[in-house]
Amino acid sequence: MSNITMCILDETKICDQCQDCLICSIDPNKKCDNCCACLDESDKDYETIFIEEIIIDENVR
Questions:
Q1: Most exposed of 14, 24, 33, 46 (fewest Cβ within 10 Å)?
Q2: Prediction pTM value
Q3: 14 phi, psi to nearest 5 deg
Q4: Distance between CA 5 and CA 15 in Å, rounded?
């Protein structure tokens, strides 16, 4: 039984490891390095994230 992962950018596509999801939203020539500069773009004192899924690995405790 294979573990099929769907693309996080296009929910109709199977993930093909294209890594488009790892591109920086500020600088498209850069791979995301978790600098969080994209979170500082707004004038809000907070940022909202939406959690779509929590995956728990039963083998890790």
A1: 46
A2: 0.50
A3: -75, 135
A4: 6
Look up tokens 């390095």; give the residue. Answer: 33
| Token output for 2 | 């294979």
Q: Residue 42 gets which letter from DSSP?
A: S
Quote the CA–CA distance of 29 and 25 in Å, as a whole number.
9
- Which CA distances in Å does 40 have to 7, 28, 44? 26, 17, 9
What is the maximum alpha-carbon separation in the chain?
A: 47
Q: Which two tokens stand for residue 24?
A: 């920086």
Cα angle 23-33-46, degrees, rounded to a multiple of 5: 90
Residue 2: pLDDT over 70: no
